[in-house]
Amino acid sequence: MTDKNRALLERLWPMDGQLALSAEAEHELRTEDYVLEMPQSGERIVGRDKMRAMQREYPAPPSIVIQRITGAGDHFVVLGRSDYDGEIFHVANIVEFSDGRIARETRIYGSPFEPPAWRSKYAE
Q1: What integer is the mean pLDDT of 100-115?
Q2: Is 38 helix (H, G, I), strand (E, B) or coil?
Q3: CB count, 10 Å around CB of 95?
Q4: Quick one: which of 111, 107, 123, 105 has its CA closest to 26?
């Protein structure tokens, strides 16, 4: 499964910095009980449907340059650099798989931030 999991990540976050998939396509790559945690902002989004809804509403997604994908089996780390309209963050994304789908992500950003009010309806 390691090769398939790595291939899924490389498709989701290609090394050329361009996001390849839409919120709809990403939705299919996640488990029903998918969890996204962002420790700096304290947000926890539970369920792939909530994640898709948040992605659809995201006002200006950042550009992302993937620097490295490491891991094996069901556990990977994706390191990258994100540009939020000129403000740069280094990102470590810990990705856990279950049965060939993304079950959990923990996204750690170089600088803490307060979550925007519009996302509060998605976070626990």
Answers
A1: 89
A2: strand
A3: 22
A4: 105
Contact assessment for residue 66 and residue 13, using Cβ atoms and an 8 Å cutoff: yes
- What is the secondary structure of 80-111 as a DSSP string? EEEEETTEEEEEEEEEEEETTEEEEEEEEESS
The pairing of beta strand 101-109 with beta strand 75-84: unpaired
CA distance linking residue 93 with residue 90, whole number of Å: 10
Q: Would you say 36 and 105 are in contact if contact means Cβ atoms under 8 Å apart?
A: yes
Rounded to 5 degrees, φ, ψ at 77 are -125, 130
Q: Are strands 30-38 and 101-109 parallel, antiparallel or unpaired?
A: parallel
User: What is the C-alpha separation between 8 and 6, in angstroms, rounded?
Assistant: 5
- d(CA 18, CA 7) in angstroms, rounded, equals 16
Q: Who has greater pLDDT, 49 or 66?
A: 49
The residue type of 36 is L
Pick the residue with more confidence: 113 or 78? 78
pTM recorded for the entire structure: 0.82
Can you name the residues that pair with 66 across neighbouring β-strands? 80
